[in-house]
Amino acid sequence: MTKISVNEVTKCYAGHTALDRISIDIPEHCIYGLLGPNGAGKTTLIRILNQITMPDSGQVLINGEPLGQKHVASIGYLPEERGLYKKMKVGEQAIYLAELKGIKKAEAQRRLKQWFDKFEIGGWWDKKVEELSKGMQQKVQFITTVIHEPDILIFDEPFSGFDPINANMLKESILELRDKGATILLSTHNMASVEELCDRITLINKGKSILEGKVSDIKRQHDTHKREIVVRTTTPQAIYALGDTYNNIKVEQTDVEDEMRLTLYSATSNDLIAQLLQNGQLVSYKEVLPSMNDIFIHEVQSQNQAS
Q1: Domains (ranges, CATH) in the chain?
Q2: Please, what are the averages of pLDDT over each run of 10 residues along the chain (307 residues)?
Q3: Whole-angstrom Cα distance, residue 128 to residue 133?
Q4: Collapsing DSSP states into helix, strand and coil, what is residue 241?
Q5: CB-based contacts of 177, cutoff 8 Å, min separation 6
Q6: pLDDT in tens, 50-85
């Protein structure tokens, strides 16, 4: 079932078209990646979804109904530019923000304690926000974004400033929120996080949607037939010789002394495999699909060159 429908949405600013008839369908209970280079129109779309601004034309539907004031409480938004009151104590501010979202103080304290313990920041409850590192402040803002358990969560560059351990903690929490029923819109330039988290994506460039679909399908559609074979051998020269015999093959030594890696840039021939087996033992064979980072660059550059 579709949770959010963006139908032919257009938005212009002073002669600049930020969004040009964008249409996106976001299924419920999924993590949906909103991707694009700087200035592509992502922030404008996010502002429209949060009713900070309105489209010039087109429509946004939530559960089949036109986006309106009643949907404000069902959306949690973590902006790229964080905003906490520096002089307030962390716990005091978290309770205040939770109460603004309609949670009674006792319930807010209960939920906040669970999240603070989960994110290992319980000891900072009585500290002022300005005493926290950037990463710690981002944890607090993430918690205050999700504390009212909204149906829709919008995260704009949520991993900015996090070290790998805390970024992983955040990723696990985002997956848990999806599994509990939230629909999550994730805007990020971190393509590794897209591959780890997103079920589907839309790639926007110059205000237009240029690529949309399941991450797995998109990677398959962009398959370049690159394959990687690792073989264990006592005759490495024979393996190197295969690189001269066959076109589009790169041969190199791995970190393991008696193992060689062959990278193929075309379909594998049975004859090549047979010759490898004559000169060693096959350790592994895998297809190497392009990364979302490679696909992102290719698609954006292709559109820019065409326009």
Answers
A1: 2-221 (3.40.50.300), 227-287 (3.30.70)
A2: 96 92 96 95 95 96 95 92 84 93 94 95 91 89 95 93 90 96 95 94 95 95 90 91 82 92 79 87 92 93 85
A3: 11
A4: helix
A5: 146, 153, 184
A6: 999 999 999 999 999 999 999 999 999 999 877 788
109 exposed, middle or buried (CB, 10 Å; 0-12, 13-18, 19+)? middle
- The answer to whether 154 and 160 have CB atoms below 8 angstroms apart is no
**What DSSP line would sit under 186-240, residue for residue?**
EE-S-HHHHHHH-SEEEEEETTEEEEEEEHHHHHHHT----EEEEEE-S-HHHHH
Eight-state DSSP code of residue 284: E
Give the span between the Cα atoms of 29 and 243, in whole angstroms. Answer: 48
User: Is-contact 215 195, C-beta < 8 A?
Assistant: yes
Neighbours of 141 (CB within 10 A): 19
**pLDDT tens-digit map of 154-199:** 999 999 878 899 999 999 999 999 999 999 999 999 899 999 999 9
